[in-house]
C-alpha cells in the first residue's frame, strides 16, 4: 500500500463520521505520525510503500477513531503552545483557550525574577511546564488529586526538560493547605462544568475524558473558585495574583464571588469573544 493510498483510504473512512476538512486534518496527522514524513515529503514520495507493521497500526488507529476515541488519545500526543505533550485518558486534552490563559500570565510576568507559581489542577502538566519554560527564573509547584494525572505530568516535564514539582493532593481538603508555601501567582483551570451541561457536550468528551477534571455539582458550581479564593487570602504574596480559566456562562457569578471574598478582578474574553479568564488580586 502506497502512502497516497493509505491517506486516501483513511480520509474516506473518517468522512463517514467527521466533516471532510476534519477528516483530512486527522488523516494527515496520523500518516505523519506513522511515517515521520510531513505533507510535502509525502507528496514527493507518494508512491512509497508503508511497512507491514504500519499497515497493522493504521488499521488499529482507524478502528479507534471510528469509535470516536479522540485522536490525541489514539496517538498519545496533544500540542499546546507549539510543544508536544503526552496525553491519555487520565488527563484532559489541552484546549486553545487555556493557551490564552498561559499567554496572559507570561505576558505580565515574564520579566519577574524568583517568583513562585502554584498551579492547581495539573492534568497533563501543560500549564506549569510551559510557564517554567517561558519564565525560567520561577519556582513552580503543581497539585492534582489524580495520581495518574501526576504520572502523566511528570513524564511530560521530564520529556520537555522542565523542573516542576508535582504533588498528589486533594486541594479541596483544607488540611492540606499547610503543606503548600506562600506564592506569588496562583493559576488554575479547575473543573467548572455543571452536571446539567452534559447534555450539550460532545459524546467523545463524555466517553473518554476524565469526569473528575470536568464536572462540578450544579448546586455548587464555583466550589473550586471559592476554595482557591480562601486559600489565596493566607498564601498569596502582597502583590500576588490569581489567574483563572472559567466557565463562559459563569463569568458574572465568578466575579461576584471573588469580589465578595476581597479581591479586585479583571475579566478577559478569549479569541471567540467568550468570558473565559479572570485575574484576581487582593484589595489592600
Helix proportion of residues, in percent? 40-55%
CATH architecture designation of the largest domain: 3-Layer(aba) Sandwich
Strand content: 15-25%
Largest sheet: 7 strands, mixed
What does this structure look like?
This protein has two domains: 3-67; 89-282, 3-Layer(aba) Sandwich (Rossmann fold). The chain has eleven helices and eleven strands. It has helices at residues 3-14, 20-35, 39-44, 52-66, 71-75, 96-109, 126-134, 147-160, 203-208, 223-235, 251-260, and strands at residues 78-80, 83-85, 116-120, 139-144, 165-168, 183-188, 193-194, 215-216, 236-245, 263-269, 275-282. Helix 9 links the parallel strand 7 (193-194) and strand 8 (215-216). Helix 1 packs antiparallel against helix 2, helix 1 packs parallel to helix 4 (52-66) and helix 6 (96-109) runs parallel beside helix 7. The protein is elongated.
Compact summary:
The protein has helices at 3-14, 20-35, 39-44, 52-66, 71-75, 96-109, 126-134, 147-160, 203-208, 223-235, 251-260, and strands spanning 78-80, 83-85, 116-120, 139-144, 165-168, 183-188, 193-194, 215-216, 236-245, 263-269, 275-282.
What features would you highlight for this structure?
284 residues; alpha/beta; Rossmann fold; 2 domains; seven-stranded mixed beta sheet; two-stranded antiparallel sheet; 11 helices; 42% helix
Blueprint of the fold:
Layout: H1 3-14, H2 20-35, H3 39-44, H4 52-66, H5 71-75, E1 78-80, E2 83-85, H6 96-109, E3 116-120, H7 126-134, E4 139-144, H8 147-160, E5 165-168, E6 183-188, E7 193-194, H9 203-208, E8 215-216, H10 223-235, E9 236-245, H11 251-260, E10 263-269, E11 275-282
Parallel strand pairs: 3-4, 3-6, 4-5, 6-9, 7-8
Antiparallel strand pairs: 1-2, 9-11, 10-11
Helix pairs in contact: 1-2, 1-4, 2-4, 6-7
Amino acid at each position: 500500500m502506497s502512502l497516497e493510498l493509505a491517506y486516501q483510504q483513511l480520509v474516506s473512512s473518517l468522512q463517514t463520521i467527521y466533516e471532510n476538512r476534519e477528516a483530512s486534518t486527522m488523516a494527515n496527522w496520523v500518516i505523519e505520525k506513522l511515517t515521520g514524513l510531513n505533507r510535502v515529503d509525502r507528496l514527493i514520495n507518494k508512491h512509497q510503500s508503508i511497512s507491514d507493521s504500519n499497515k497493522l497500526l493504521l488499521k488499529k488507529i482507524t478502528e479507534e477513531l471510528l469509535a470516536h476515541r479522540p485522536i490525541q488519545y489514539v496517538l498519545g500526543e496533544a500540542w499546546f503552545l507549539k510543544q508536544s505533550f503526552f496525553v491519555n485518558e487520565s488527563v484532559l486534552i489541552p484546549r486553545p483557550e487555556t493557551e490564552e490563559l498561559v499567554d496572559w500570565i507570561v505576558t505580565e510576568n515574564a520579566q519577574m525574577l524568583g517568583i513562585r507559581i502554584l498551579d492547581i489542577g495539573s492534568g497533563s502538566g501543560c500549564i506549569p511546564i510551559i510557564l517554567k519554560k517561558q519564565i525560567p527564573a520561577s519556582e513552580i509547584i503543581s497539585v492534582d488529586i489524580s495520581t495518574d494525572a501526576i504520572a502523566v505530568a511528570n513524564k511530560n516535564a521530564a520529556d520537555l526538560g522542565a523542573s516542576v514539582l508535582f504533588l498528589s493532593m486533594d486541594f479541596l481538603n483544607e488540611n492540606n493547605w499547610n503543606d503548600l508555601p506562600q506564592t506569588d501567582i496562583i493559576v488554575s483551570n479547575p473543573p467548572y462544568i455543571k452536571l446539567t451541561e452534559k447534555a450539550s457536550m460532545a459524546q467523545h468528551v463524555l466517553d473518554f475524558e476524565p469526569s473528575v477534571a470536568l464536572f462540578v455539582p450544579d448546586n455548587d458550581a464555583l466550589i473550586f473558585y471559592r476554595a482557591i479564593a480562601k486559600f489565596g487570602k493566607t498564601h498569596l504574596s502582597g502583590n500576588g495574583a490569581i489567574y483563572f480559566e472559567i466557565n463562559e456562562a459563569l463569568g458574572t457569578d465568578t466575579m461576584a464571588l471573588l469580589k465578595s471574598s476581597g479581591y479586585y478582578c479583571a475579566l478577559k474574553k478569549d479569541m471567540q469573544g467568550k468570558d473565559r479568564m479572570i485575574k484576581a488580586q487582593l484589595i489592600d
